[in-house]
Amino acid sequence: MSLKQKVTKSLIWTFSDQVVVQIANLFFGLYIARLLGPETFGIIGIVLMFTNFAQLFVDMGFGSAIIHNQQLNTIHFSSVFWINSIAALLLYFLFYLSAPSLALFFKQPILENVIRVCSLTLLLNAFCVVQFSLMVKELNFKRKAIINWISLFTGYGAALYMAYNGYGVWSVVGMYLTMGCSNVLVIWLTTKWKPSFQLNKEAIKTIWSYGIHAFGDNALNYWSRNFDNFIIGKCLGTLQLGLYTRAYSLMLLPVKNLSTVISKVFFPAFAQRQEDKEKLAKHYLQLIQYISLVTFPLLIGLSLVSSEFVIIFLGEKWRAMIPILSLLCIVGALQSIVTLNGVIYYSLGQTKTAFKISILVNITLIIAFVIGVNYGIKGVAWSYLIANILLFYPVYTTAIRLLNLSLINVFYRLKGILAALILMVAVISLIGYFINFTVIIAFTFKILIGTSVYLISLYAFERKLVIQIIDKGKKTFKKLKK
């Protein structure tokens, strides 16, 4: 099978995976949020802020290094596995001992036990890092998707059962532990590769340089994305944090389910073609066109109907989330194309440049959040948006210059999509301003009219692109039928 065929097959499976995940997160996630309320998600937000950061130390960039380096063997894989496992064990004990202090710092006694139990996911994830990296390296996204579905539905099943039976915050903790256990069980039963008892220093040195810079970039990016959660949790409390994290997770859905999917598939593919920059530039422009075609109308549209969306799907107790969701969706639209910067840096081996850019982003966002928190969660959301707008030019152009591209090239490629988007925004805004409906009717009417205007305008401005997508869809459907 050629690389092109592998990439096409991988995209089909990865998109299928993300469609299932998106539907599950929307229906199950929103329903659990409606049952448990904002404060529960504020507590979980604090825990995940630390455990997800610790997960970066477990991986230490070696997962990306495995995908990037085409010369590695089983000795390297086994060495990485044992390094990951040792790091996870040490970090678990660190969390176990520091849990009382973290509970005191955030003035939430329940955090002590929640942190100690939820940190077990670090150990579970460590047993899967190498196997998942090998699946991505081999573009075996079919197996990865099936494993993901099994863990997703077993996790949500556990969460729903516990939520109905009054377990509160432990319902979400149970979900994460169930997902972790499911991943470990299925991976170890179905994958051929098993670690040998080898921890080779020379093997680790081979991938250390790439891995450590990737880790540094990821670590700084992580805190630039999560310092807002930290400062809200400390200064404004878990109720406000719950509102903010739920809005943020909704904003991330299109970003995760499209931009991140494409990043995962095209990183190994780009890494195999890293010498041909002209071809990479051509594919990159095509990718951001496909991404923005979907994420821009989804996120800007959600921003415009945020009021109706929150009341219908989450209920009145989440009403304070409306302006936060509206602002963060605009941030998400920008991030949906900036997310691909990582593909450029990592596939070209430019992890040092990525690290330097992360320092700039991190410092800017921390300053913005420190200023914004003085005005409540709305202030944090506004500061996040303003900082992203200010950072867009230096951050984005630094990455695309590596492919010999400029903002003019990008704008020219997206001009039809942006024109259709502007028309959609104008029509939905006019409907909201001049016509008064009940919440459900207003939501339905805005979605239907807005979608129709966008699709008709898109066909008018980008007819060739639309026809191309339809043709590719038909070919893909025929392949799936065979």
Question: SSE layout and pairings?
Answer:
Blueprint: H1 3-36, H2 38-59, H3 62-68, H4 74-105, H5 111-118, H6 120-126, H7 129-137, H8 141-164, H9 169-190, H10 201-235, H11 238-272, H12 277-304, H13 306-313, H14 322-338, H15 341-347, H16 351-372, H17 376-401, H18 407-434, H19 439-461, H20 463-481
Helix pairs in contact: 1-8, 1-11, 2-4, 2-5, 2-6, 2-10, 2-11, 3-7, 3-10, 4-5, 4-6, 4-10, 6-9, 8-9, 10-11, 10-16, 11-12, 11-14, 11-15, 12-14, 12-18, 13-19, 14-17, 16-17, 18-19, 19-20
Task: Walk me through this protein's architecture.
This protein is mainly alpha-helical and 482 residues long. The protein has one domain. It is 86% helix and 0% strand. The chain contains 20 helices and no strands. The longest helix is centred in the middle third of the chain and has 35 residues, at 201-235. The model has no long low-confidence stretch (mean pLDDT 83).
